[in-house]
Amino acid sequence: NVEIIDHKFLVLGHSFLPNDRDFGVVEMSLKKNNLLFVPQDYYNVIKKCRKGNNFILNEMKQEDFISTRFLEDAVFKRVKNSNGETINWLKICWMRFLRNEPYKIFYKISMDENAEFKILDLLPRRGRPRKFENIVLTPLYKNIRQIGRRIDEETRCRNEKEKERERKSEREIKRQRMGDEGAFPVRSVEKGDRGSYGVVVWVC
Fold first, then answer.
1. What tens digit of pLDDT does each residue of 52-106 get?
2. pLDDT of residue 204
3. Is residue 165 part of a domain?
4. Is residue 185 one of the residues assigned to a domain?
5. How would DSSP label each residue in 122-157?
6. In-domain check, residue 11
């Protein structure tokens, strides 16, 4: 049985993991595929994004997502530690959990081995504390979730941006083909001007 769990948060921008390169390969492949509507579309892209040594894809099922609601209800959410200091979660670098102290979080705001752990007590103020081993975890979702309007809007905006980039690229190619010699004058009359005065513009 595990008695101590240490969770250390690496400093942002000062860490590199071997799988960072894999994430980059997946992201580049996703950018090249605009028609992604269901999870299976993402699975297919990830499976084929490398020519050799393909990724091993573990597809998540609905029953794999567990709700933590009952665990959250069993603790008291405090904003100050045992010394009365306000907790800044963004500055925490090291968290320690002890098996024999289930209602306490030991944390540090530095990676110093000699620094003392500060304590966050999550023990409820009223009633008898519940035993975590007796809490039954339930599925996070009971029914299939519908695709929200926000996802539809993001897909539409992404497709429009891709089309706009294609149109700009086509216009640029036409300009390069025509060159300066292919420019020709077009005479147009300003709006609201009833006379014969015209404005000459150059169209490439």
1. 888 988 988 888 999 999 988 889 888 999 999 999 999 999 999 999 999 999 9
2. 41
3. no
4. no
5. ---SSSPPPPGGGPPP-BS-SSPPPPPHHHHHHHHH
6. no
Q: Does residue 110 sit in helix, strand or coil? A: coil
- As a whole number of Å, the CA-based R_g of the chain is 30
**pLDDT beneath 50: ranges in the chain:** 180-204
* Cβ-contact 92, 100 below 8 angstroms: no
Question: In terms of residue numbers, what domain contains 106?
Answer: 63-139
The 8-class DSSP code of residue 103 comes to E
d(CA 198, CA 190): 7
Token pair recorded at residue 17: 């993991």
Q: What are phi and psi of 101, to 5 degrees?
A: -130, 70
Q: Are residues 84 and 50 in the same domain?
A: no
pLDDT on residue 151: 58
Whole-model pTM? 0.58
Half-sphere exposure of 75 (CA within 13 A, CB side): 16
Torsion on CA atoms 187, 188, 189, 190, rounded to nearest 10: -130
Q: Do 122 and 82 belong together in one domain?
A: yes
Please give the tally of structural domains in the chain: 2
Look at residue 54 and tell me if it is in a domain: yes
State residue 178's pLDDT score.
64
